[in-house]
Amino acid sequence: MNNFTAIAECEGSFGPVAIGCNDRFDFTLLFEQSLLNIGPSAILLLVLPLRLRQLFGQRRKVLQHPLNTAKIAACIVFGGLQIALLILWAEASLSTHVSIVASVLGVIDAFALGILSHTEHTRSIQPSSVICLYLIFSLLFDAVQCRTLWLLPDLHSLAAVFTTMLSAKLTMFLLEIQGKRRFLFATLRNLSPEATSGIVSRGFFWWLNGLLIQGFKATLSPSILYAVDDELRSGKLLQKMNRYWGQRKGKEEHALLRAVCNTTKLAFVLTAIPRFVLIGFKFSQPFLISRIINYVDGDRGSYPKPIGYGLIGATGLVYIGNARAAQCADDCIAYQLSMGFYQHRLFRFITMIRGSLVSLIMSKNLDIDASSAVDSSAPLTLVSTDVRTICKSFEAIHEVWANPIEIGIAVWLLQKQLGLGSIGPAVTIIGTHTSRI
């Protein structure tokens, strides 16, 4: 009984590491339920009304299909298992003061996912990014808690139901990532596969497989290439550009730059997110390598074997997100999942800038009286050389804010290893970058 009380007190502490909890290498139950359960649930419920508001303004886009029924059925099963977990947690001998709260939120999540899944399926041409992101992180976090529940005494029935719930959640994820291109209304089936692909397909560039297969079998022609995404169409970009240019022309300094930024501001933000994630992946490697060296050197802590397995798992996660390919003949080509997201969004952003500028220039060129024009070739120069130069400069726009962050972290890491010796490299870096300005 004393041992059970000690375990209950340990699991009821925030931790996060479960030091002294039944002699295991793990997080405490309170930490897992507070951050890994309640955190994703709270974010989902905050995003839900915003996304539903967007979707309710859209018309129906998908035909009736059993896939929608399967999604709803999976949500119902998931909700039933969440209710069962709520009952079991209410009767459990070992729980924390947030166990009931986390379970109630799980039931609400099931209800919310059912509504959002049906609405996304009928009113969106893509698999739901909100649901897929929630399920990806939730599956990872729930797998951690599932392991903990199986290791705790007197919770095996609850652990079995939790494992079944995890399987239902995985089924929901597999259903949600399915594309809906075949079920779209006939007027929408000519859209680009990129426009109808979900976040998983776009992240791994699976939507390009069909085009690559066609290119392998035969020579590609313009008729075979995919349609341009609606966001990249010059007509839509010109409407925005004309509106912002008309508001600022002749009234403000740098009016053209401001008009371009306003036209592409959403694309800029969507590009900044993967660039920020890339910083994390970049510096996860030195932290990981440092910890592995310490582990091999003898600093293995109280649980040497579990820590070793944890380092193996961490290595897998780091190099899945930041995977380096084998050495080629001349140099090493870095294939990075996070870099793939960033480069994809970056060049969409640059394409939108090019489309906005070229459309505006050509539109204004049509308004010029040819007889009064001093140099009729000037607009063509703007379209070719100047626009190319502008777009080239925007390729490094996110490095302006990302590089100082990376330099700061790098100098801090050097300071931890070298102490005052890190001042020399820091001065060199600052001097080099200052001289380029």
TrEMBL record:
How does the entry describe its membrane topology? Multi-pass membrane protein
- InterPro entries, per this entry? ABC1_TM_sf, ABC_transporter_C-like, TMD0_ABC
Q: What's one GO MF term for it? A: ATPase-coupled transmembrane transporter activity
Superkingdom to which the source organism belongs:
Eukaryota
Q: Give a Pfam family name.
A: TMD0_ABC
TM ranges = 72-90, 96-116, 128-150, 156-175
Keywords from UniProt, A to Z, are: ATP-binding, Membrane, Nucleotide-binding, Transmembrane, Transmembrane helix
Q: Which residues form the ABC transporter TMD0 domain?
A: 23-156
Main localisation, per the record? membrane
User: Per the record, what is one GO cellular component?
Assistant: membrane
Task: Give its localization.
Answer: Membrane
Name of the protein in its database record: ABC transporter ecdL
- Organism, by scientific name, is Colletotrichum spaethianum
